[in-house]
Amino acid sequence: MIEVEIKAKIENPKYEIEKLDKLGAKYSHTERQHDIYFNAPDKDYKKTDEALRIRKIPKNDTEFEKILTYKGPKLNDISKTRKEIEVEISSITKMTEILENLGFKKAATVDKIRRIFTYENYTITIDKLEKLGTYMEIEDVVKEDANIDEICDNIMEIFKKLDITDNFERTSYLELLEENKE
């Protein structure tokens, strides 16, 4: 599958939520996500623009969904469109141990609070990250033969309807956190 995603830094999440409501977006839920990123033993994912992560997401009050995700390099110059492959895992500890035994190294962790909305066939999230601020992402997950340019145009139209016309960011949260360290 291909994840077509565009994000923008926002300053006033409450105001943006009001605009989402007026647009007709439906609030789904809020979740705290914890991501552990890994780097490969044979190449540097910073240089190849790839990512490998384990994400922990609450299913309910006592259970968590744990997902191993590979993200390929960005496919265009406008968005964060990437090939994405995900598989649910049963144990973060055991998956981490497998990866480390294969030579992968933990690169970083990213924690965020994500508010999730739906609008038409798009997922819209408002992500709050300590040290980085708040971002809105609009994404669509499509088949590999989809017209990515058309989907990017549609996402930009949604941003325009929300009066968001600048502060777009192609850099991943991981990369932004690493830049923030320097």
UniProtKB/TrEMBL annotation:
<dbReference type="InterPro" id="IPR033469">
    <property type="entry name" value="CYTH-like_dom_sf"/>
</dbReference>
<protein>
    <submittedName>
        <fullName>CYTH domain protein</fullName>
    </submittedName>
</protein>
<dbReference type="InterPro" id="IPR023577">
    <property type="entry name" value="CYTH_domain"/>
</dbReference>
<dbReference type="InterPro" id="IPR008173">
    <property type="entry name" value="Adenylyl_cyclase_CyaB"/>
</dbReference>
<dbReference type="Pfam" id="PF01928">
    <property type="entry name" value="CYTH"/>
</dbReference>
<feature type="domain" description="CYTH">
    <location>
        <begin position="1"/>
        <end position="179"/>
    </location>
</feature>
